Amino acid sequence: MGREQEVLNALDVAKTQLYHFTAIIIAGMGFFTDAYDLFCISLVTKLLGRIYYHKDGSDTPGSLPSNVSSAVNGVAFVGTLAGQLLFGWLGDKMGRKKVYGMTLMLMVVCSIASGLSFGNTPTSVMSTLCFFRFWLGVGIGGDYPLSATIMSEYANKKTRGAFIAAVFAMQGFGILAGGMVALVVSAAFESKFPAPSYQVDPLGSTVPQTDFVWRIILMFGAIPAALTYYWRTKMPETARYTALVANNARLAASNMSKVLQVDLEAEHDEAEQSRGNGYGLFSKQFLARHGLHLLGTTTTWFLLDIAFYSQNLFQKDIFSAIGWIPKASTMNALEEVYKIGRAQTLIALCSTVPGYWFTVALIDRMGRFAIQLMGFFFMTVFMFALAIPYHHWTLPKNRIGFVVMYSLTFFFANFGPNTTTFVVPAEIFPARLRSTCHGISAASGKAGAMVGAFGFLFAENGMGVRKALLILGGLNFLGLLFTLLIPESKGKSLEEISGEGEERN
Question: Which residues, at least 6 apart from 474, have a Cβ–Cβ distance to it below 8 Å?
Fold first, then answer.
């Protein structure tokens, strides 16, 4: 056992080095792209409605029928869920590195393809868009378990939480980039092709060139993914996978010494032991050791994502409802994209991005458990504070207050469960099941995102924003209760948390 243990101990106590930061960038750029691709669609759905669903003589601009809107917004989540399960399982079967490049390639190809369409009828354009966004989702889904697992297996035990959280925090920059790209592209087209507002000239308010705008915004997601592809293929397999799952301690040591400065004597190598790989996912032993942990990671992620994604995807509707974005008929198509992009950029800048980095700074001091509990608590409080006196917030003089409260729910989602639900499953399960269990937990989150994407739309139409917000507050409170099932992993080695150390002695 000595050789293998030596490799793992060396990883646990390795000093923080340049390669750790390189790994954060390589894994994090995947997340930057994920967030950009998932959220940029909400910037262009109103534009798509104006271009393809214009009705002559209507007082309001064209908008996507609710079934098309749900499909366009939600189809990427269906793909993401499938990708998380598939690539999570493949990551444990084939190794982290082998499948890491595949997910990125899929994202590059499908980002570009999303901006192309076969035919020019509304049905053919939306069908093409949905088809490629599904496959884009599969690539994005694969990135979740692989990036989290790779980062957790490279990190030392002292700063592991911050490293995994930093990979995830790149999401904030992705959401911010989405808003900024929409601002730049729409402003550039607006200055070149000025148009009257919808109420002045319904047909002229959407110039033909507008069709390029949504395509450019969607295709831009291919650039950051393509830039990091080369570096991903150069990353060695993680030492923990090689030592614990592939049972090759010598290769693990040599892989590690290529990228990290660690003290390992390579001379004495005991014969490789061929031993069984321990219990599987569906065994009684797994259920006894990790059953409640898996229940905790899946339910908290599921509940969090219902709230998080319904908030994020429909913030443009909420801003319109409180009058932060002017009435659609008073703007032309490009102006509307600009205003929606501006709102998303402001929220990302003031609450989303800082929330992620607060977690990075404090996760290894406060611990995962405390941050998650605190985040769910404040999300519950702010949701109820928005929902109960909802009428009060819609009055013009109180709108800024509404936006501040709304921003605070985002801040505590990110300085809270949105980050910790990603970090914890990468730490508490054994190496041979780590990527699979992370994939299952993440897929459960995406099921919540789908409930958020489809459910919030119907809830908002059926019972209004106020009741929808009340329901979200209740779900956040449930998340707080399920957090109690999750163990604290701060400052422990991965083998200590998962019980692999004792199992192998």
Answer: none
